[in-house]
Design a protein that fits this description.
The complex is a heterodimer of chains A (about 750) and B (about 600).
Chain A: E1 3-9, H1 13-27, E2 32-38, H2 45-52, E3 58-62, H3 69-79, E4 84-87, H4 99-104, E5 111-119, H5 123-141, E6 152-155, H6 156-161, H7 172-182, E7 187-194, H8 206-222, E8 228-230, E9 241-244, E10 247-250, H9 267-286, H10 288-319, H11 328-332, E11 342-348, H12 355-363, E12 372-379, H13 383-391, E13 398-403, H14 411-421, E14 426-429, E15 435-436, H15 440-450, E16 455-464, H16 471-494, E17 505-508, H17 509-514, H18 525-535, E18 539-549, H19 555-575, H20 580-587, H21 589-620, H22 622-631, H23 635-662, H24 675-695, H25 707-712, H26 733-741
Parallel strand pairs in A: 1-2, 1-4, 2-3, 5-7, 11-12, 11-14, 12-13, 16-18
Antiparallel strand pairs in A: 4-6, 5-6, 8-9, 9-10, 14-17, 15-18, 16-17
Chain B: H1 6-15, H2 45-48, H3 59-94, H4 101-114, H5 131-140, H6 143-148, H7 150-173, H8 178-189, H9 192-197, H10 204-224, H11 227-241, H12 246-266, H13 268-282, H14 284-297, H15 302-305, H16 310-319, H17 329-344, H18 346-361, H19 367-389, H20 415-427, H21 433-449, H22 455-462, H23 470-480, E1 488-490, H24 492-502, E2 509-510, H25 516-523, E3 531-534, H26 542-547, H27 551-554, E4 557-562, E5 567-571, E6 588-589, E7 596-597
Parallel strand pairs in B: 1-2, 1-3
Antiparallel strand pairs in B: 3-5, 4-5, 6-7
Helix pairs in contact in B: 3-7, 3-8, 4-5, 4-24, 5-7, 7-8, 7-10, 7-20, 8-20, 8-21, 10-11, 10-12, 10-19, 11-12, 11-13, 12-13, 12-19, 17-18, 17-19, 18-20, 23-24
The chains are: A alpha/beta (about 750), B mainly alpha (about 600).
Chain lengths: ~750, ~600
Amino acid sequence: MKLSIIVPTYNERANIKPLLETIRAGSGGRDYEVIVVDDHSDDGTWEELTQEQANYPLKIFRKTGKKGKAYSLIEGFEKARGEVIAYIDADLQYPPEEIFPMVDKLEEADVVVANRKVYEDSAHRKLASRIFRTIFGKILFGIPHDTQSGLKVFRKEVLETVKFGPKSAWSYDLEFLTRAHQAGFKIEAHDILFKKRQFGVSKLNSLSAAWELIINALSLRLRAIGPQNIPANGPSMEGAGVGYRGRKYVTHTTLPHKESALVNLYLWQKLAILVLAFIILYGLTVNTLLTFQIVVGILSAIYFVDVVFNLFLVLRTLKKPHAIKVTDEELDAIDESKLPIYTILCPIYREAHILPNFIKAISELDWNKDRLDVILLIEEDDRRMIEAVENIDLPEFVRAEIVPDSEPKTKPKACNWGLAKAKGEYVVIYDAEDIPEPKQLKKVYLTFGKVAPDVVCLQAKLNYYNPQDNILTRLFTAEYSLWFDVILTGLQSLGTCIPLGGTSNHFKTADIKALQGWDPFNVTEDADLGLRLFKKNYKTAVVDSTTFEEANSRIKNWIRQRSRWIKGYMQTYLVHTRNPLNFLTSKGYHALIFQLLMGGKIAFILINPFLWIATLSYFILNQWVGDTIESVYPSFTFYIAIISLAFGNFLFMYYYMIGLVKRSHWTLLKYLVFVPFYWVLVSWAGFVALRQLIFKPHYWEKTVHGINFLESQGALDIDNREDLIPKNIAEGRFERIKKLKEPEKEAPQLVYA
Amino acid sequence: MPEKSPISTIKRFFNKLPRPERSRYSPSSLHEGADTPELGSMCSLSRIHPQTKNTRSSASEYGVENSLEKHGAKILIFCLFSVSIVTFVHFYQTGLGLTYNDARSHLDIGRRVVEGLTPGLAQLGSVWLPLPHLLLILTVWNDFMWHSGLAGALISMISYVFSGLFIWLILKRLAVSPLPRLIGVAIFAANANILYLQSTAMTELLLLLTLTGAIYEIIAWSQNRNDYSIVKGAFWVMLATLIRYEGWFLFIVAAVLIWLYTAREKGKKAAEGMLILFTTLSGFGIFLWFFWNKLIFGDFFYFIFGPYSAHAQQEQLQIAGDLLTKGNFLFSAKIYYFAVYYCIGLITVVAAILGATLISLDKKLSLKIRMAALVLLISPVVFNVLALYLGHSVVFIEGLSGKSWFNVRYGVMALPAAAVFSAYLIDKSKQMKYVLTAVFVAVIGYSVLTLDSAVTIADAKYGSSGRDVSQVAGWLKNDIKDDHQSRVLIAAASHDALIFSSGLPMKQIIHEGTGPFWESATQTPDKWAKYIVMRTYDTNDSAWNSLKDNKYALEKYEIAYKGIFADIYKLRPEYESHLANDFSPTAFDFSEEKITRKK
């Protein structure tokens, strides 16, 4: 591992040779280079350096930019070729021989700061340094280290992550450490003896430098340091990530944080919510009735538009099925020997019990097995899964990849890891409980040949293999049938954005890599990807093949899964409304469809319960609340609302029926009379999702799969088994506050289903 | 190939979309499992089936058929619209468009939703099913549209055009070739009674549109098993159930048919699912109607047993000994036969019976299509006979029952069946084809030439369906003139035609649907109404019924006009100062059932 030592110089002729010599002596033969950036010295430093160039691994450069140490460092970093970087003042007050012990410490940390423990320099400089360190380092930024230390060693990854332009000649150190700290890099101290200067004179004007440092520190405190992208290890996205709020997230994607759900709300979004809340509160104070009438009027209009839009979509689908068909003849004509390699990613966590089923389902896929590359993505901490894989006789086309433990521990992160390991020309994600139709890969392969080049994703339809388990699975199946067999095909026919379903999204590997994989912070990364690719002028099509999944048959389990989906929709909505005007101007009415599809869906889930209560109260408690409710519905609003109430609800129930008929789930239709209860559950999950969005936005609610199998094995208390659903935890700033009160738990931070 | 609907045909017509490719049309494709080619895409039969060439007499005829096949629907729509407009203008000019008492009532109900002392959907009431009045709302707010009757006629006219188109499409589904198909449409469209009814605000044409739409879609579904067809069929049935109770019967018949077909083909589970799919939508209107009655009148069955229901009307007729059909099936059938006979004509009736027999025996069509066509088309006929037999409906045929014509127009419900079956007969008649064509051309021509002699006009003018209230309405109109402050207390259930003919805005009318205004005005009329219009001593008149014992109030009025159907009571001048002048909503306290004027 090569070390690059950056030395900024200005009139340090006498210190050059001892410095170089000491470094060499301390290196112990290790590979290093010294990069000196001379700030136009006039005491012969440059000549001295030129002379010594032949004797040491030394590269010397004349300063080209602004005068000052900070700018010299920036120029020096640009010349550095080592994987580890160090910088040191040339005045020999910091001991050059300590550089290599500090490099050794990088095994445990990302940045090592020389801590001036023993101070031989003047007392007033020592005092000033200690005061600055305490007030500005520790109190203001929470960094308990010698921030202004002139000797620091760190990984190049840190430098590439915290890139910034210094504001003044002496302002580099604090911002560097603050940014590194914010990016989640581990900073360690290394005690040193700070010597008195032997040769030359100090360039530091204590008073003006102190003033400059204070101003810069305060200014830095006022500036919010946003997420910082951590670069990948190599040409693939492996190792890439983002640092934010003192946490380092290794996500294996270079997706810019602006396109990610790492941050819930941008400042303007927060302000917009506050302003809206203020307007409503102000209105309620000034004219309560009118405010209610306006709010109810707007909501009724949105509901009405949604009713009309859904009717339009369903009629489009009914009129002409838009799933792309592949004939048996076409399938038979495929030359097996010319099939490309197809990668199947299967992120699997604490689901050892369903692994055999998955292997069986995958083995039944009609695809040349020599050209099948199935990757089981197993988390490093999932010991049972790793043991299960070791003990099972995996087919040759299945391999296990251990996803290194890192935050966030989510399915999309594992998929990004898998993408870096994929060998195939095509790639698809299947969940472990999935049973894709055997011909699915071939259908996709042929369909990719039929669709326009801008179609980069083919979504297979999803449905359930256990609809008859109970009323919940029946209604869940109805909902899935509507979504995948009616709504998605309708959306496809409009050429608009399609929020992808959880599994069975097929891509050409090059395309998904170009799209920078999945957002590891979004708990419905698939929906987000659908939007993202649409915004980049790509399209999704629905392929006429089905993957069968397991419908959730337990309410608690269902709530966990649904709350995650809704939270993911909320995240996706917020991410894609960061530049609403841009969306509108570039995509026109599709931006409005997005608002209705995502924003409307979420809003309705949260608002519906209040409207149901109002409606029921109107009939049951009319004597007490009838007049009040009537007063907030002026006649125009009333008629709009009544149409949505009577026809909207009816039509939705009817759409479920159409979905079920399309799937030939004949016997399920009668159970749709219970669908209002299902809607109540959806809203319940919606509120769980909202709470989680605020308090733990990236928390992945674990859904237990293979319930039938577990029950058949006599498993008890499935909803509370920690081996299936880790009681994990912390993330986000609220969690950190919580941690102050609760003992820290040893557990994986995030899990996924 | 996608299903063809009239709406899409219209779209193509107006958008001038490029002509679709020539298709693989063949008679065999009309059997189960195959779909009908798109309109305008059908190619020359001879090119596919050279043997059919032998049955053609000449190349020119062949060309006509070919053109009809391609452009028939578009030409049809154009022609029917033209006929519709010309006919409306004719009846508007002759003043016959508003002769039916019910036509004026329909217009008034629609108007009351948008204008009156208490406008709103509640004005739809429960006397009639609500769809025609809901559609009227779109235009009846305009005074000209209301008083000219065009608001209602427009619905009938549009319905007329698309009913004709649906008959064309049904015949196409039955593999009837273009020329007989055209004759079939003409039998319907040139019928004098249909032409008259399409010029009025009556509901027959709207019902015929929904019936033919539903029948077409269900026949299409029986051929193609396309989910969209069954949903569209259910939709049309739902609309029909919100127009007249014939729709409710069709709902049952179609549901049974769909269950049977699916059960035979896919088993009982699939039949259960398909039945739910169909009935949920098609029955939604019925559900809403029950719910509406509960919501507005507090009783799910108010429309059946309420004071203004058909049931109440029939009870009175029964007491008067006029309900002769009740319990007598043969007489019911005879009465309805004559209604059909007078509406359609003997030749068409005979041809239809023969055509129906032919369809039932024609093995070239699959049994399912034959059954669907026969059962569904005949269902309105069966309904009407049953309704007469059960005493839920009444039809008077002059000379057979009743004192004059009454509801003889119900006979037109058999017209779609007659048109389809007759066209089928012509198409399959081989040598007799041209004779039959000539006969029907003569029938059609005769019908058009005797337009003003249509039995429905006689029914409206002279029968119990009509009511000449022009004199009493004229007096009222003349006396009130520009006095926009005076109100008239009048029972709409008894005198809607009079309200309409008076030309007064609804805001000046206090009727049963005005809730607290009516309650207050029937207690102390002198404080609310300058005029009371009622049929003195007739307890069926709610105004009289409410005021008959209130001599103190009536003494303040004098009878200003005595008419055949109603008397006009006018407040004596010395009491006029007690009258409320400001009827704006803010002037009253509505907190009680009866309203009080705010001070």
